[in-house]
């Protein structure tokens, strides 16, 4: 098989949650540029619609804004998607948020909000769309679920982001659980654990800590859009046809070599 076929996502139907900015945008753009029909969603309808219009200039991209931390919004989003598509080849569960506060003053709202979006929504959105994933999968070509975790689910962060770290650790283990039980339904489930990529979320990290993390990264660099898109294309293509239950850290070695 030629490399163009091995890594092709052309003609596939994909959803990228939190796809209007950051790593979600990087992945969505990579899929669109390589021939997938992509649906993006985020809570900010204007930003989501704007990016979909922009990406539609180079391929096929559709916007369905939704707040996936709410079960009723998951239902609405799924119904709108199902009205347009009979199958779902790729589901990228990327929507997420963070919250930082000292241990003694960390609020319940900062726990529930982050866990609901980062962990709970992944399970219930995948559950809700599983029939469309089954429609796309076969013994020869599994449908793909790609959960976006974080290196903060692999190591102890220097930041006091308790619910974020807990949610991302949950995502990584939930990925293994889902992989075990969905394989019989021809659905492969893997996770990406990104390190430091330039984004709205990492922009709030204090300069001193950001510099320390860069100095501790063996590759001495930050992630790029190509790095995010590349691993997401791999996990969505024939190249990863015998891979499920895996977590791929994309962090320049920061959390995985210490």
Write the layout of secondary structure elements.
Layout: H1 3-6, E1 13-17, H2 22-33, E2 37-41, H3 45-55, E3 60-63, H4 71-82, E4 90-93, H5 108-136, E5 143-148, H6 162-182, E6 187-194, H7 207-215, H8 225-236, E7 247-250
Helix pairs in contact: 2-8, 4-5, 5-6
Structure description:
There is one protein chain. It is built from eight helices and seven strands; from the N terminus they run αβαβαβαβαβαβααβ. The protein has 258 residues and is α/β, with parallel strands linked by helices. The protein has a single domain, classed as NAD(P)-binding Rossmann-like Domain (Rossmann fold, 3-Layer(aba) Sandwich). The chain has a seven-stranded parallel sheet, sandwiched between helices. α2 links the parallel β1 and β2. The radius of gyration is 17 Å and the shape is globular. It starts with a helix and ends in an 8-residue tail after the last strand. 45% of the residues are buried. The mean pLDDT is 95.
Helix content: 40-55%
Indicate the proportion of strand residues.
5-15%
Q: From the coordinates shown, what is the CATH architecture?
A: 3-Layer(aba) Sandwich
Uncertain stretches of 5 or more adjacent residues: none
Q: Work out the helix count.
A: 8
Query: Can you tell me the number of structural domains?
Result: 1
Question: What is the residue-mean pLDDT, rounded to a whole number?
Answer: 95
Oligomeric state, counting identical vs distinct chains: single chain
**Sheet with the most strands: spatial strand order:** 3-2-1-4-5-6-7
Main structural class = alpha/beta
| The first-level CATH class name | Alpha Beta
* Number of E-type strands: 7
Can you summarize the main beta sheet? 7 strands, parallel
CATH topology: Rossmann fold
SSE run? HEHEHEHEHEHEHHE
| CATH homologous superfamily designation | NAD(P)-binding Rossmann-like Domain
From the alpha carbons, calculate the radius of gyration and give it in angstroms.
17 Å
- Measured between the Cα atoms of the first and last residue, the distance is 38 Å
Q: Judging from the principal axes of the Cα atoms, what is the shape?
A: globular
